[in-house]
Amino acid sequence: MGTIVCQTCNNTIDYFEDEKVTILYGQCNCSSCEQTEDLD
Q1: Are 10 and 30 contacting, i.e. CB atoms less than 8 angstroms apart?
Q2: Which residues contact 3 (CB under 8 A, 6 or more apart)?
Q3: Which of 15, 27, 36, 39 has the fewest CB within 10 Å, making it most exposed?
Q4: Nearest-5° Cα angle at 9, 7 to 18
Q5: What is the number of other CB atoms lying within 10 angstroms of the CB of residue 1?
Q6: Which residues of the chain are under the pLDDT cut of 70?
Q7: Domain assignments of the chain as residue spans, ordered by start
Q8: Pfam families of this UniProt entry (predicted)?
Q9: Is pTM, for the whole model, over 0.85?
């Protein structure tokens, strides 16, 4: 099983099927992440 985690706030975004345990980093759409994105 794999997990997709937000690289900004470390919240779990989603899970996906995989042969081994995997963590991928993405970005969610929570208000704190959207504010951080505007600063870049």
Answers
A1: no
A2: 12, 14, 15, 16, 22, 23, 24
A3: 39
A4: 50
A5: 10
A6: 36-40
A7: 2-39
A8: SR1P (PF13790)
A9: no
